[in-house]
Design goal:
The structure holds 2 protein chains of 2 kinds.
Chain A (H helix, E strand, L loop, with lengths): L2 E5 L2 E3 L5 E8 L8 E6 L5 E7 L6 E3 L7 E6 L4 E6 L8 E9 L1 E6 L3 E5 L2
Parallel strand pairs in A: 2-11
Antiparallel strand pairs in A: 1-3, 3-8, 4-5, 4-9, 5-6, 7-8, 9-10, 9-11
Chain B lengths: L3 E4 L2 E4 L5 E7 L12 E6 L6 E5 L3 E2 L7 E6 L2 E6 L8 E7 L6 E2 L3 E5 L1
Parallel strand pairs in B: 2-11
Antiparallel strand pairs in B: 1-3, 3-8, 4-5, 4-9, 5-6, 7-8, 9-10, 9-11
Classes of the chains: A mainly beta, B mainly beta.
Amino acid sequence: QVQLVESGGGLVMPGGSLRISCVTSEFTFSDHSMSWIRQAPGKGLEWVSHISSGGDITLYADSVKGRFTISRDNAKNSLYLQMNSLRGEDTAVYYCARDNIVVAGFWGQGTLVTVSS
Amino acid sequence: DLVMTQSPLSLSVTLGQPASISCRSSQSLVYSDGNTYLHWFQQRPGQSPRRLIYKVSNRDSGVPDRFSGSGSGTDFTLKISRVEAEDVGVYYCMQHTHWPWTFGQGTKVEIK
């Protein structure tokens, strides 16, 4: 059974940084592209970033471009999102998702990032 | 950015009755490879989203056959043939033909 477990969320001040992680298991991580998708409290879903299976292709939403960096360590079966220059509007639950035929076939349980002073 | 517009935004349905959600995109979702990358997700209260339908009409593994997807170009529909209590939640359409990939606003389904 595919497992995606996010961690690293928490409270951070505006302008601060945070790195969240997604540890995966029960599948060959290096075979799959991965994404980060977020959901602000009480709001809808927003695609944040995507990375190819080999890590050579990355995509970012305009709202995070230049501030967030997606990466992966295929040896550790892990996906990361480095978030810098955080703003209040980045407050959200961040989900990692794995492709299955196409994008977002499997989702983790999410990790909450709160940006506030 | 490509805009995905769902309607209605809220739906109250009697158990056992059908439900239908519309999703319209501001551009055609047909990709250069001929595929249409329009998918549907369900988010039950307090849970992570779950994909139900991919590429317009393909049900994901474990999804009941009362869920079906249809459409083409810019107009798409998710249908639930007979609503059950476990179908309560918010449903989102999503496109990944054009970057940035975008979701609809969501349609909240409740039981009447």
